[in-house]
Amino acid sequence: MEHQALVTEAIEEIRKLRDLIRGHDYLYYVLDSPEISDAEYDSLFKKLEELEHRYPELVTPDSPTQRVGGQPLEKFGQVSHALPMLSLSNIFDENELLEFDLRTGKALSGSNRHEYVVEPKLDGVAVELVYQGGVLVTGSTRGDGYTGEDVTPNVRTIKAIPLKLSAAGVFANTGLMDVRGEIFMNRADFEELNRTRDDRGLQPFANPRNAAAGSIRQLDPKITSRRPLKFAAHGLGRIEGDLPGTHWDMLQGLRDVGLPANLPHAKLCTGIEDVLNHYRYLRQVRVDLPYEIDGAVVKVNSLENQVLLGMKTRSPRWAIAFKFQPLQATTRIVRIDVGVGRTGTLTPVAIMEPVSVGGVTVSRATLHNQDEIDRKDIREGDTVLVQRAGDVIPEVVEVLKELRPEGSVAYGIPDRCPICGSSAVRLPGQAAKRCVNVSCPARLKETIRHFASRGAMDIEGLGTKLVEQLVDRGYVKNPADLYVLDKETLSSLDRMADKSAMNILRALDRSKRVSADRFLYSLGIPLVGEHVARVLIMAFNDIQALFHATGNDMTSIHGIGPEVAQSVAAFFGEDKNRYMIGRLLDAGVVPVPLEGASPGSGAPLTGKTVVFTGAISVPRADAKKAVERAGGSVTGSVSRKTDYVVAGDDPGSKLDKARELGVRIISEAEFRELVGM
Fold first, then answer.
1. Hey, what domains does the chain have and what are their CATH numbers?
2. pTM of the full predicted structure?
3. Which of 15, 57, 296, 589 has the smallest number of CB atoms closer than 10 Å to its CB?
């Protein structure tokens, strides 16, 4: 009876937590108005995870915790769309829009004063989401319009897509609903993704759309889960239930049930002049939006009139895509410079004659790496077409070879670092050349800037120019040197008075107490971003524990792959890195363990998975806590990744499964000894 009461209490608590988390997801992803901090959200999520671990029989597919990608697929299956996902006809000038309006008017008994909805045309990947009884069951790409690829496991990892719809608005009681929309990526997220790929020596994505398409079509859903994908709904296919009378009300209804609808910067317009004005507005603000748009979609608002207008072979007659002219311009490459990042990556940048692109004057364009230069045959002195494609620094679209000067030669990134003169090598399988000198001033400056950045140690006032002076004068040769700076040294720098020097010293002192995950991130370990740093610290608790962790210890943690594990192990395997960390700790830097983190790699069950079967003499909740205190985790089913099965009295089928898979089986007494109960 006591156990049943606990289960009943858990059911109610889990329900409340799921509703609360879904509500905060709605505020964050749909309304863009979060009410709690990330830390508070993470705390709620962790409580739900703990309850579901304790009561695995209560886990449901629509729980917010079930977004983590499953096993990699061998290939994508196919999904037939119940109604075709047609593409839109494109137009490129205002006269074509007026003709569209005239055709619409004639088809609708001569009326020429229609309501239209004008939406930003998101430059992403079209998908269809099938909800049955409010629960997401299938996600697929457009494909050829009739059959798409089944990307359901990947779609489920996107936090902007609700796994369960809320019971609100006109679609509250809909049985079956096919939602059409766009998966895309914000510019800032795209730039950060490309920076990460550059650091890893991988080919950067050409643009946000290319990145979104590559992300949603990963055979391994875990890769998709790490990509910053967004979603916006813009229409419906098949639906079992009532429809509102207008497209505008449909968008509102989709938003009401928890879907991010394509409503920001959309407008309900009366008459074609209103449509034109809003198109011109979108064209003007496109460069300021956080995401890429390549035009406006104009749709007849009345759903009844949409049916009357019908379809052409490949596109509807009631909607049209009014595309923008690309933000492109022609200029000349004066020279190609090479920059050096904190991991030693040599990045070529075209220095160009200044030109206006979409109202912004640009004079630099990233060339990414040697493969990109060779593919486009880019040379110094070339006249090129450049475009802004989500980056502040634009990209070179193509070389106008007919204008190439005589005597030009193919460009090759140098084999020597342009800053320190050390060898620059390209490792097999990597796209980038890297400076091999870990003490290269350019690498060191980037390392110090990263160490002091807001997401890391957050040392206020330690800006680019100050870092350059400290490195150039030899005062700082690694991050630990920052904490032995004194007022006299700082005051000797250009534009650094005594008051400014004291402000820097106070900022350094404030930075000494820092969360362990931010400290780990500040070290600049390749492949270790803020999220990975937090995952590692939650598993190992502190930096000292990571010193002794093996690659196998790390890959046993969900979300840590072999590349990350190898990078971390290599970093801590270097004596000079250990020495630097020791100096930081001796200087008074205190990495504070995260609440709820595991006890560290010295614990007997660090990274291990335990399954219980049969009756044991202690409550399961207490046994689970003992496992977690010992660094492990408890799951409800046996697999090849299970490390221990604890067999109590009258064990069930889990024991047979463990024997079949060769999983180690221990008694309750052995378990107690192992965890010190």
1. 2-67 (1.10.287.610), 90-323 (3.30.470.30), 328-414 (2.40.50.140), 441-511 (1.10.150.20), 516-592 (1.10.150.20), 609-675 (3.40.50.10190)
2. 0.54
3. 57
